[in-house]
Amino acid sequence: MFFFFVGGVRHQVTEIIERDAARCLRCTYPANLVNYDNLLEIFFIPVWRWPCGKPALHCTNCGFLVPNGHFRSLTDNIGSASSTSRSVCWSCARSLEHSFRFCPDCGAREDL
């Protein structure tokens, strides 16, 4: 018997909490702080929706969604002396040396 499943879970923005709250980690455009829901789709038809408890950063330019606490604020001074020697992984929030291109814990690429 062959079973073919087309579907998956995607995120859908439900409310904008704060406009231009931070910079996108992928494209560095201003992004919004939002509340979002998880949406289960089967054959592109929404079947089940459940809310996520914490807000996230959503870029309107590239569509990247990242949980709160894993991004830099627009007010952060990226060129300051404190950020030149160490940075934080956007994926797992581990403290990293500024020269690292990949996080040693989770393997996320550091393009900041």
UniProtKB/TrEMBL annotation:
Any Pfam family matching the protein: Zn_ribbon_15
Highest taxon of the lineage: Eukaryota
Protein name: Zinc-ribbon 15 domain-containing protein
Signal peptide range: none
Residue span, Zinc-ribbon domain: 23-107
UniProt cross-references to PANTHER family, sorted A to Z: DOUBLE ZINC RIBBON PROTEIN MJ0416, OS05G0435400 PROTEIN
InterPro entries hit by this protein: Double_zinc_ribbon, Zinc_ribbon_15
